[in-house]
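Limitations
The structure tokens in this dataset are predictions for the assembled complex, not deposited experimental models. Users should treat interface geometry with appropriate caution, especially where small molecules or nucleic acid strands are included. An illustrative entry is reproduced here so readers can see what is and is not provided.
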Amino acid sequence: MKHMILGASALAVLATGAVAQEVTLGRFFGDCENAGTDTKVTVGEACIIQSIINAADAQLDGISVSTLPTDWGNYYDQIKATYAGGTPPNVHVMHRHRVPEFASIGALADLTDDLAAAGIDPSDWEAAALEAVTYNDRIVGVPMDFHANLWHVNMDLMEAAGLVENGAPVLPSSPEELLEHARAVKQTTGQDYLAADFAQFPIGVRVALALIWQQGSNIFEGDTATIDTPEARNAISAITQLFDAGLANAQLNYADSQQAFLNGEAAILVNGTWVVDFYSAEAAKDDQGLNRYFAADFPTLFDEGATWADSHMWAIPAPLKANDADTYAAALQVLAFINDHNIDWARTGHMAVRSSVLASAEYAALPHRDEYTGTADIARDTPPSVRYGAIQDVLNRELQAIWLTGKSVDAALADAEADVQDLLDR
Amino acid sequence: MPRHHIARPALTQRQAAAILLLPFLTVYAVFLVYPFFKGIWISLHDWNLMAVAFNPDAKTFVGLQNYERVMWGRNITWGAWSSPGLQMLGLIGLGAGFLLYRTGRAGKVTALAILIASLLLFVLPGFHPGEGGRWYDRRFWPTVGNTIVFVGLAVPGVTITAMLLAAALDGETRAKAVLRTLFFLSQVLSVTVVTLIWQIMFSPRQGLIANLTELFGGSPIVWLTAEGFAMAAIVIATIWWSLGIAMILFLAGIQDISKDLYEAGALDNATGAKAFWYITLPNLKRTITVVVVLQIILHFQVFGQAHLMTSGGPNDSTQVLVRYIYQTAFRDSELGRASAMAVFLFVIMGGFSILQFVLGREKDQ
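Predicted assembly:
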């Protein structure tokens, strides 16, 4: 497909006789072979973003966009290596949590004074979105979404367990109730109550973090790690009680846990907003174990609502702005195009960042959108840190050690606190 | 016909050699020697990958501090019995090496290698944090340990399987030729393909192995996330992947053995397994040495399998040295620290390379 696009753009150049300004683009989200240029029909993150990029390539005059091959799992390693080698892509996607790491050394172009001319209106961004892309009072990126952990619900299993009221699932409000509900599902349906990736990516970490935040605690504050706390123990035991009672399986990775949910083998799947459209498309198929699907806010098991959240955003490397005005201008055009298609990206299930999009009827009509309206208010993340990636890895390792290898909670929390403290001290 | 000499600039052999070697030496110097010394130079600095790219002055010279931060700790003491199992093994090795040498059952170099390895086994595990002390980097030595365990499982695994396969597939029938090709095929795959294949094989939901265990009434093992099985899983994938070259080396070795030996053996009733044990194996000694040392050097650099199949988990049980170096350099941007670990890895592999060199020379004499 890429060759076809490149070939087609080469032909277009020959036909018009004009030399298109090439913009290279780096992104994660995975590959999509035949995304096309229709941004309204694609399904799933990979295909929706690629259709938007293809549309930009086709519709922006004198600009061709080529997507660089990158790999999800090693994306930031790759991007950092390209920065270090002096050849970063002209525009690239990143998470809000990475802003300190990149912006603190001046890697990201300051877009503040150039957005308006490119047709991007920051005053249309939600306050939290503006904050996400702001570093030292300067705008260093264009936000694309808020994403957060949801509870994806199989309504048939919940109904069988008597856990549906007024067409909505009844979710637990305490760790004890969580266990009760899980037992009810097991007794009536024989299936697990909850599935999530507790074995690979840090989805399990994000569940534990949400439960820690719900008690008003956090894993570090300033330069001090605060992991070995009663709040962390409460959060962990709320999760491990399900494993111990055989009501959830800790050993499923991302793909396996998702498959278990789609097969109708788990009533709840904890996963992000990014799969809402995919799961509703799957539920619509006849041959799936999942038939009636509901996307619910992460429930509050302790004192205050909280769920893990982050933002995707687009940035331009500082050297491009400094050295190549033409490509920089073209790159801004690409960002403006993506910003204009915020509603299309929201079709994934992510929450839009533009107030005008959030208020639109089209947005409200997106599938399941009205079911998780509370998520924006409870969205949380750990404090900003240049060592975010390494800290997440420490938590993932130690929490997995608890539920996969039986490491004692005391030892795991002590090790996690020591390791995170080490990272904060470096 | 008149004979006349055409005067041409005469090159001495030395000059010709120099000119012919020049292209290689240039490439070697630019792409191997320079980066190597640059790596050592970086390891002496506090060097942030991205910061230095944007500001070359953002690094500070810290001497050997990176090495200390990686390998040492606060209040480290040494005890003869702090790790009894390994240290006992070291002592036994010391005794055995000495005995082998005295009874003439091992050559000077072999005995020396055993003695050095045993001494290291006795000394190194003896270091441990004393009262109130701790390793600065509590993951480094366990990571080195995991790497050694991986090498310790993969190398014999590859060597023995490849040798048996070679013995079985040596011959001129068409079936054997096809099988040889098949077994070699896995070697040409890239690590991404190999790990993808084996992730599917090991998957508890759709994997071949899980289906087989279920067929026989067992409950499937979750290979990649179970602490006892994760390392075994990546070793199995590695053996499958790297059989090919070793098998070819053994085939060459086997074909070098004179057929007379087998004929003579057959007269004394040594055929099949017996012939393998008494004729093939002793004659393959040299090939085995080469294969083992090459495999050790290769597998110390294991990265892809642990990175792609288990992400070093669960609980760091498959975290290996190169993956730790990679994470330190690219995830944490700490190039200095990562280079210090890389230099450590170089020393280990350099040791084995010297061993191979020495063993090779010993046999030549």
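Some entries come with short summary sentences. For this one: Chain B has a mean pLDDT of 89.
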